[in-house]
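Lab intake sheet, docking and co-folding queue.

SAMPLE TYPE: protein with bound small molecule
LIGAND NAME: zinc ion
LIGAND FORMAT: SMILES
REQUESTED OUTPUT: full 3D complex as structure tokens
PRIORITY: normal
SUBMITTED BY: R.K., bench team

The fields below were copied directly from the construct record.
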Amino acid sequence: MKKILSTLVLLAVTFPLFAQEIEKTEFTGYIGETTVLHQGSYTPDFKYDGSNRKVRNVILMIGDGMGLAAVNAGMYANGGELTLTNLHTFGFVRTQSDDNFTTDSAASGTAYATGQKTTNGFVGMDPDKNAIPNIPEMLSPLGYACGVISTDDLNGATPASFFAHQDSRNKTDEIWADLPSACLDFVSAGSTEVFDKRPEETRNAIDKRYNMVGSLSEVDGTASPVMYLPPSVQLADRGDYLPSTTRKAIEYLSKQSKKGFFLMVEGARIDKEEHSNNTYGFVREMLDFDKAIEEAIRFAEKDGHTLVLISADHETGGVALRGGDPEKGYIRTAFATTGHTAITVPIYAYGPKSQNFRCFLENSDVANKIMEILTGKNPNK
Ligand SMILES: [Zn+2]
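RESULT FIELD (auto-filled):
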């Protein structure tokens, strides 16, 4: 016995790999806190949720950087509930890209848009720089109406993944130049300011292809494809842009095709505020995104043939919840980083076939499942 013990001690000394070294340090990251006013939440009827009814429309909502802690922070700051957390069906999504354990929004956006993993920074291209079809490009020829909305600039990695094919998310002019050949009936994101800086040739081609409207009220009666660029997409300037544009896009797209529609809605600035470790900022963005989620859920509840999926491209900030008081809308946070993290993100589903998302998925699986549900065929199998 003694001999065995001394052998074990010797092993532990010789192979320090067996022992875990824990260094105790003071937390040096940023700690933030915020108090926000409760905005309430909506609980839908679950009559069609998880049923096998035919799915005609899919609304995919991507909270950029919306990890589980961001959902929690938003939920507790909102008095303990969100429309999102009132839903009954959820799973988890692994976000790794083809070349990196920690993804960026371009690679993960491309996975959500095409069903294929790619290199960080690539938009709508595989690791060998071949253009790969996105959901609108696959659905539009089948008669579906498609739309994209984001609180980012239209060339942002997530919205761009649904229309562009470029080997760098930083090729801003090239991404805008991909818009005239996009398969989109409704486009809205930032912004007139960004559009005005594009080369004249690109602006003319976009003007020629799209019916540009100056406000949401002009959308009704405007022929497809329609583009609405607000002056700015910053939270302070945009008011209820995201929920009201989501509502309008759903209304518009559902009139464009009897077959059905696909709409991607991105709450882009949860991520940006987490990059700055700004607790107030990301919680406000989370609550704004939840208002847009409510619009989609209310439509799906009435329609009965609409599947709503809400997920994230990755977590940002390594957000932790250190304390709070839901009644006062108070939360206290800490951040492990100003970058992205590799932890799985939640996915929530509502409507018929929502049960298909009650599992552990890859981000690329989400697009393939959407295509399989709508068309009966996984495009990457
Ligand atoms: Zn980011």
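REVIEWER NOTE: The mean pLDDT is 94.
SIGN-OFF: pending second check by T.M.
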